């Protein structure tokens, strides 16, 4: 598999190896030992899948507060997205900065987002399906988020506010500056 670092330490772009033959291909989407060696140091305990019917659906930017903080391994099963991870670890040298990458079913690439990041995506095609592994179970009480269009983040989303399709919950999320210090940087990634 191919593992690329990004401008934010700990956030990784991974392309697992596909074995092609006359039938199509086979690919391992996760393999604990190999992924751990590559820097995916989370223990995953839940798998999620979402379908977004309209193009330019924006989901995010989401996180869960400790002790239910989640690292995520994100990939696309159908269609394509711009996937975004924002560093919200106070004291981090990259606090407030983000990584944005295009993930697609065709490329089969994955983004590893450690705990301490807000995560979201914008779909680039109708009927896009996203799959992600998470390192802590869902907890509604620990669910939090940042408004996707918070200008302080400077994210170049493919869709502006006129075209983005956003949930009622996400439409009223606060800005990063209005959040308290939820995560503290400890010199590495804290999955
Ligand atoms: C995330 C999640 C939601 N749900 C339920 C709660 C709600 O009734 C329904 C839809 O939830 P949401 O609107 O929060 O779904 P969604 O907006 O797709 O939330 C997801 O967005 C992406 C960007 C992430 O990074 C994920 O961690 C998650 O926050 O599904 C679960 O039961 N388990 C889960 O793990």
TrEMBL record:
The record marks 138 as: Participates in a stacking interaction with the thymidine ring of dTDP-4-oxo-6-deoxyglucose. GO terms for cellular component: cytosol. InterPro entries: RmlC-like, RmlC-like_jellyroll, RmlC_Cupin_sf. Signal peptide: none annotated. Pathway: Carbohydrate biosynthesis; dTDP-L-rhamnose biosynthesis. Keywords: Isomerase. GO terms for biological process: dTDP-rhamnose biosynthetic process; polysaccharide biosynthetic process. CDD domains: cupin_RmlC (cd00438). GO terms for molecular function: dTDP-4-dehydrorhamnose 3,5-epimerase activity. It catalyses: dTDP-4-dehydro-6-deoxy-alpha-D-glucose = dTDP-4-dehydro-beta-L-rhamnose. Gene3D superfamilies: Jelly Rolls. The keyword Isomerase applies. It is an enzyme of class 5 (isomerase). Its EC number is 5.1.3.13. Belongs to the dTDP-4-dehydrorhamnose 3,5-epimerase family. NCBIfam families: rmlC. Catalyzes the epimerization of the C3' and C5'positions of dTDP-6-deoxy-D-xylo-4-hexulose, forming dTDP-6-deoxy-L-lyxo-4-hexulose. Homodimer. This is dTDP-4-dehydrorhamnose 3,5-epimerase. It comes from Rhodospirillum centenum (strain ATCC 51521 / SW).
């Amino acid at each position: 598999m191919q593992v690329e670092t990004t401008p934010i330490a700990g956030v990784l772009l991974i392309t697992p190896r596909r074995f092609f033959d006359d039938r199509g291909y086979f690919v391992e989407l996760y393999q604990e030992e190999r992924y751990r060696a590559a820097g995916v140091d989370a223990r995953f305990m839940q798998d999620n899948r979402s379908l977004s019917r309209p193009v330019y659906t924006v989901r995010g930017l989401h996180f869960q507060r400790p002790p239910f903080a989640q690292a995520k391994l994100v990939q696309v099963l159908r269609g394509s997205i711009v996937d975004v991870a924002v560093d919200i670890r106070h004291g981090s040298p990259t606090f407030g900065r983000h990584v944005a990458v295009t993930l697609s079913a065709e490329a089969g690439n994955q983004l590893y987002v450690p705990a301490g990041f807000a995560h979201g995506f914008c779909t680039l095609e109708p009927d896009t399906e996203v799959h992600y592994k998470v390192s802590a179970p869902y907890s509604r009480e620990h669910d939090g988020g940042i408004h996707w269009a918070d200008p302080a983040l400077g994210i170049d989303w493919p869709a502006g506010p006129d075209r983005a399709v956003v949930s009622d919950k996400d439409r009223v999320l606060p800005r990063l500056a209005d959040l308290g210090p939820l995560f503290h940087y400890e010199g590495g990634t804290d999955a």
